[in-house]
Amino acid sequence: MEKLYTAVVTAKGGRDGHIKSEDGIIDMELKAPAALGGEDGYANPELLFAGAWGACYLGALGSVGKRDNVDVTQATVDVHISFNKESEAAYCLSAELHVHIPGVDWDIAQKMAEAAHRACPYSKATRNNIAVKVLAD
Questions:
Q1: Which run of H or E residues covers position 58?
Q2: Rg (CA), the chain
Q3: What number does CATH give the domain 45-136?
Q4: Which sequence spans correspond to the domains of the chain?
Q5: How many Å separate Cα 28 from the centre of its chain?
Q6: Are 93 and 130 in contact (CB under 8 A)?
Q7: Membrane spanning segments where (predicted)?
Q8: Are 135 and 106 a contacting pair, CB within 8 Å?
Q9: pLDDT for 99-117, tens place per residue?
Q10: Residue 93's beta-bridge partner residues?
Q11: Where does the pLDDT of residue 8 fall: very low under 50, low under 70, confident under 90, or very high at 90 and above?
Q12: Among candidate residues 14, 123, 111, 125, the one with its CA nearest the CA of residue 58
């Protein structure tokens, strides 16, 4: 494995804390969402994870589109990250990736969506760790 890039972000204070990247591009306050006893209007770990996964996933879908000679430049993915309670002291994440590829039949879009999920580094990182559904719209 050849390391190509390393992002460094320092987190303080947990869900009601602050994150700052080494390069200063990210410098933001975090709050738990209102549904978890916090307050709306702030970023939270699930939002950040969903955004990062979605961006990475579309990169993988771009590679699949290039391989299959299908234009995916207008494709979108809605990433749903859920924070779930397993027991009184245990929590876990689950995810749904809703993929939309304009002008592509559903069965082809679903196959492409699944291929991108197999290739995406974020999808690989979560494989067999959290429940994930990949659905072409």
A1: helix 45-68
A2: 17
A3: 3.30.300.20
A4: 1-43, 45-136
A5: 19
A6: yes
A7: none
A8: no
A9: 999 999 999 999 999 999 9
A10: 83
A11: very high
A12: 123
Could you give the CA distance from residue 48 to residue 134 in angstroms, rounded to a whole number? 19
State pTM to two decimals.
0.94
CB atoms within 10 A of CB 116: 27
Would you say the CATH fold of 45-136 matches that of 1-43?
no
The CATH fold assigned to 1-43 is N-terminal domain of TfIIb (2.20.25)
- Asked if 71 contacts 65 with a C-beta cutoff of 8 angstroms, the reply is yes
**29-75 pLDDT, tens per residue?**
999 999 999 999 999 999 999 999 999 999 999 999 999 999 999 99
Rounded distance, CA 66 to CA 83, Å?
34
Do 120 and 59 meet the contact criterion of CB atoms below 8 Å apart? Answer: yes
How far from 90 is each of 17, 24, 34, 51, 85, CA to CA, in Å? Answer: 21, 33, 19, 24, 6
